[in-house]
Amino acid sequence: MRVSAQLYTVRNCGDLSDQLQLAAACGYADVETTGLHDLTAPKMARIVAQSGLRVRSAHFDWEEFEGRLPEIQDLLERLECPVAVMPWLAPAARPDTAEGWKAVSGQLSQWAAQLSDSGVRLAYHNHDFDLAGYSSQTPLEMFLETGNVYWQPDIGWLGAAYLDPVEMIERYADRVVSVHAKDVDPSQKGDARWRDLGQGDIDWSAVLDALVRTACSDLFVEHDEPPGPAKTLTTGRRFLTDLLKGRI
User: Fold this and answer.
1) Quick check: 159 and 200 in contact, CB under 8 A?
2) Can you spell out the DSSP letters for 89-141?
3) Contact 152, 178 (CB under 8 A)
4) What rounded mean pLDDT belongs to the chain?
5) What does the angle CA 8 – CA 52 – CA 27 come to, to the nearest 5 degrees?
6) pTM attached to this predicted model
7) Partners of residue 3 on adjacent β-strands
8) How confident is the model at residue 133 (pLDDT cuts 50, 70, 90)?
């Protein structure tokens, strides 16, 4: 498992080139990108190449998958990126029935099949709205039962929903490709709940022990609203690197 940087953490720190430079300055060699940054695939790939960093995984929201899949496929090929992640459905787009979520699941499976033709796996990234039951089954469960959609657990959101990350990881061990390493105080609300790694309620030692038994490739350090993005990335990398010693 690599300790990698999620660029959402530094999204307010300039353009893509600035964000990549900051991640490198914080000691990272690997990152996960967010969206297309209003760039063409060739231009975005050139900026990444100039940074010297590797894109291990790339996030694209529902609208980007729906309207720009050929561009996404072009970018992933140029970046030699093996994983694409669908992380977000806007509130207005979220179904309110089990049938609606089944349709979402079917579309994700279709995109996964298209991406697999070029050797890319599609993963779903959870928040908390997708962890609630519809006729005893959650949207997340619907997505993962398709067989070709993988999972990127957001550990912070699992904690915010008062779910046991270890139990969830063990339940879907064969679907996990990476995680968002984010800490949380679930007693707080909104963005006030998020913490730098090691400063919240997550038992990271137990989480890492569970992840070692999966095919998880990257621990993407993230904080939704960091007061100090560089500090979040630096302390998160050190925290996870220390915990990983002797495990792998």
Assistant:
1) yes
2) --GGG--SSHHHHHHHHHHHHHHHHHHHTTT-EEEEE--SGGGS-BTTB-HHH
3) yes
4) 96
5) 60
6) 0.96
7) 219
8) confident
